[in-house]
Amino acid sequence: MSHTRDPFAPAVHSANVWLRHVAHAMATDDRTFAYRATRAWLHTVRDRLEPHAAAHLSAQLPELLRGAYFEGWVPGRTPASHDVNTVLAEFACAAGITDDESVGLMWIVTDAFRDLLSPGLLEHLFSRLPVTLNRVLLGVSPGPNDEETVENRLTDLADRLQTLSEAVTVLARGLEALPDTEPDSDRTATAAQEAHRILLAEHTGISS
How many CB atoms lie within 10 A of CB 88? Predict the structure, then answer.
């Protein structure tokens, strides 16, 4: 009976196939970095899932990556915080990147794993997470800071529209004339000045 075959060779090969896929998605030849990002992603995702969901994901991982996945896992401490900033900071620290890079790298690894796992598995598992975290993990959100910026811009736009509406109302009232009266130039000028004052206050940030 031959004893020369390495019993771990198939497991190593499978893990390397997955790692090459992740590295390719990251456009890097640095396999060490690709593994670090993969491990960081596995642990970050694992700790946000309920234990049964985490086990469901593990069942489809190659043997060696499954070992990395469960390394240090404490089921009783899961799920961990779902706060997006906390998740991204944890991932960035484990992957050895900056917080600003974490959103992009997170969804790149997710996208690579989406190709390797059963169709729809990640969408199914992540659907149990808060919407904001789900969107970041699946790459359909630019991240919490950008989302906050968009929300602030929408609020600012609504405020500007309200101010413009007030100015138009003031001007319209000033231009109104009763059917039996002649147009009042002083009244019109006063209304125009008031409308201009409202718009100027909004533009300069001075309270009206």
Answer: 23
Domain contains 56? yes
Q: What is the domain range of residue 166?
A: 146-204
pLDDT (tens digit per residue) in 55-103: 999 999 999 999 999 999 999 898 999 999 999 999 999 999 998 899 9
63 touches 15 (CB < 8 A): yes
What is the pLDDT averaged over residues 151-158? 57
Convert the pLDDT of each residue in 109-126 to its tens digit. Answer: 999 999 999 999 999 999
Other Cβ atoms closer than 10 A to 5:
8
Task: Examine the domain organization and report whether 83 and 136 are in the same domain.
Answer: yes
- Check whether 178 has a pLDDT greater than 60: no
* 3-state helix, strand and coil shares in percent for the chain, rounded to the nearest 5: 70, 0, 30
Distances (CA, A) of 20 to 32, 38, 101, 109, 116: 11, 11, 21, 12, 11
Q: Which of 141, 162, 190 is the last residue of a domain?
A: 141
Global model pTM greater than 0.85: no
Residue 89 makes CB contacts below 8 A (sequence gap 6+) with: 99, 102
- 135 with 180, same domain: the answer is no
Based on the fold, state whether residues 86 and 46 are members of the same structural domain: yes
1 in any annotated domain: no
